[in-house]
Amino acid sequence: MTAGTVQLEPAHVAAMCAHASRDYPNECCGLLFGPAGQTGMVSEVVAIPNIQDRLHAEDPDQYPRAASIAYFMDPDAQLAATRSAAARGLELRGFYHSHPDHDAYFSAEDRHLAAPWDEPLFPGTAYVVMAVTRTGVRAASQFVWDGERGDYVEHALRLAEPADERWPSERMETRNTIVQCIDVGGRSPAEALIAARDALRLLPRDALLEIASDDRQTAETTLGAYFEKRRLEYELERLAEGRYRIRVRNGA
Predict the structure, then answer these.
(1) DSSP one-letter code for 212
(2) Could you read off the pLDDT tens digit of each residue along the chain, which spans 252 residues?
(3) What is residue 214's DSSP assignment?
């Protein structure tokens, strides 16, 4: 196994493909995480919003590309996902994005974003690229930095062996699911509920939504009551410094 490449279970690939199809004709983007110490293994696929169109509308000179041909990960969502993964002993394994109506190749723009000074920003990580059309994903590949060549080299996607004791056991299993992370800190209970509803609406069935909050009433009373009313599986965890984390499985 080449250093930096990732192994994906079929469900991980399915989750990424579903995301690419859902966001078509725009590019989708997301993160891949895996258990610390298990080189190349992926245990979570995390969808991150592509805010390229918003940036393009605000400053077309600095961001001349639209979301149909470019992506820019929402920095708040990316940070929330990374912190959540680190708190659970997971490491960044790679990134993924789609090419609507184009092939699964590592473009000059992709390389510039990954290695703007001819050195990788995230050494040891893979970049998965999917070719998607209106009928679905038709091809995918991964690209990893090759130090001798000084460039990213294409590798076939590797599927992991069936799940076994390698995977940590959790009450709400996150393996084989797509995970979305949002932070509702500082929002009113009503605003937090709207954000949760909107996020669930965009996620596929059985996906996990992880919500961070700094208000107990919002976490327990507003969101908890809403999830119970909809008969959604969820769990609430109190973190340090008065923070709360709610994990809910989408049943819509």
Answers:
(1) E
(2) 677 899 888 778 878 888 888 899 999 999 999 998 888 889 889 999 999 999 999 999 999 999 999 999 999 999 988 988 898 889 999 999 999 999 999 999 999 999 999 999 999 999 999 999 888 888 889 999 999 999 999 988 765 544 333 323 233 444 345 566 677 777 888 888 888 887 787 666 777 787 888 888 888 888 989 999 888 988 888 876 677 888 888 875
(3) S
Q: Does domain 184-249 have CATH number 3.30.110.40?
A: yes
Residues 6+ apart with CB under 8 A from 244: 212, 213, 214, 215, 216, 219, 220, 236, 237, 238
Residues of the chain with CATH 3.30.110.40: 184-249
pTM of the model: 0.69
Distance CA(129)–CA(124), nearest Å, equals 17
Residue 162 is encoded by which pair of tokens?
């069936």
Nearest to 94 by CA among 26, 146, 162, 142: 142
- Residue ranges, comma separated, of all CATH 3.40.140.10 domains in the chain are 7-159
CATH code of 7-159, in short, is 3.40.140.10
